[in-house]
Design goal:
By secondary structure, the chain is mainly beta. The protein has 2 helices and 18 strands. Strand 11 and strand 12 form a beta hairpin.
């Protein structure tokens, strides 16, 4: 398990936010290994960092939300698609999914007519993919990219979180699987690479937390290709999503523009809020 923490100065000109951003503490929780026990410590550390699980519905000033896919009903599981707004509408947790692909899918339960762990897409997946929380997994269809946007749960009010993390299964290659973080002006806050365990069925976890809730969107790149029946690619699926309680993004009247243009963010490393 790898946990890194650093304190990075943040200077902003051109914009004044409702919360001071003179300093942001960053914690990165990252681990990979052959089974759930290999990543349990980093998952638990990330959960403790964010606070209590707020479950479904309501709105809170602190804590976290989790999505483990296992409660998704059969009608929204493989071979059926999952609506991108399911976890802000059907089960209000403030997360909406987007993809350049065609759809989203949650794998089937055992005992159904559909093979588990996306065996309907590739018959090798049930043996190459494993789970952290039994027994369903998540993927985009026709793309390996998933964007997660945050909202005040159950509303159309854009939200921001102070941390996001995901469990991945079967990350073989070092590099292709990443999470990139964005603020509500669509400025990239940095990209972090998910650790890999080559050659075996594995699980990986990456979670990043900040002191302030400024993350409005994350982009997940899972492996180097969309799940398919082809061979020769690093196919990766996702398990649990864990993220901070979505907080309302400041209304335009609460954001004071000082001069022209967008904010110019200056970090010690300039281009990234996150360590390489």
């Amino acid at each position: 398990m790898l946990i890194t923490r650093l304190l990075t100065p943040l200077l902003a000109t051109g914009i004044l936010l409702s919360a001071p951003l003179s300093a942001l503490a960053i914690a990165v929780y990252s681990s990979s290994g052959p089974n759930a026990a290999s990543i349990q410590g980093s998952v638990d550390g990330f959960r403790n960092d964010l606070g209590a699980n707020n479950g479904v519905g309501g709105s809170f000033t602190s804590g976290r939300r989790e999505i483990n896919w296992d409660g998704v009903p059969a009608g929204f599981s493989d071979p059926n698609n999952l609506p991108g707004n399911f976890f802000n509408s059907n089960s209000a947790r403030g997360a909406v999914f987007e993809t350049p692909g065609s759809a989203f899918r949650v794998s089937a339960n055992s005992g159904s007519a559909t093979p588990v762990r996306f065996g309907s897409i590739n018959p090798s997946f049930p043996t190459s993919f494993s789970v952290f929380s039994s027994q369903k997994l998540f993927t985009a269809i026709d793309s390996n990219i998933v964007d997660v946007r945050f909202f005040v749960p159950g509303t159309n009010q854009p939200g921001a979180v102070r941390g996001f993390g995901s469990v991945f299964t079967d990350v073989d290659l070092a590099g292709p699987t990443t999470i990139e973080f964005f603020d509500f002006h669509n400025n990239s806050l940095g990209k972090q690479t998910v650790l890999n365990t080559p050659g075996v069925t594995s699980l990986s976890f990456l979670g990043v937390s900040l002191e302030q809730a400024i993350i409005n969107r994350v982009r997940i790149t899972a492996g180097n290709a969309a799940l398919s029946a082809l061979d020769g690619f690093d196919f990766v699926a996702m398990d649990d999503f864990i993220y901070g309680e979505p907080q309302a993004v400041p209304a335009p009247a609460a954001v004071l523009l000082l001069g022209s243009g967008l904010a110019v963010l200056v970090w010690a490393r300039r281009k990234s809020l996150l360590p390489e």
